[in-house]
Amino acid sequence: METTIYHNPKCGTSRNALEFIRERNITPIVIEYLKTPLNKAELKALIGKLGVPAKEVVRWKEKEAVAQAGIGESDSEAALIAAMAAHPILLNRPIVITPKGAKLCRPSETVKELL
Predict the structure, then answer these.
(1) Options 5, 11, 17, 90, the catalytic residue
(2) Please, what are the domains in the chain?
(3) Which of 115, 114, 110, 108 is nearest to 17 (CA)?
């Protein structure tokens, strides 16, 4: 089963989701989006796969990055996507894609729905 995880190894939730995937003997494509940031088009496509508004994948807890980006929850999709492209830490994680769908897997156990 082709599985992709947008992963931050410093994030416990992301590490747990990756572990759930590997426990099922699945070798996922791991995209460390802080090392290889997504551009606006890639972010737009990823958010489209999730089927949610961009504001639902912004990591609002990153107060400093939110302030630097100058964004708020009422900003346009384009503004939020541009902010995530400029400040990759703002992309919430882990995002997992399998043939069953795409999902922001918080809490990490929700990844099981896609496996």
Answers:
(1) 11
(2) 1-33+93-115 (3.40.30.10), 39-91 (no CATH)
(3) 108
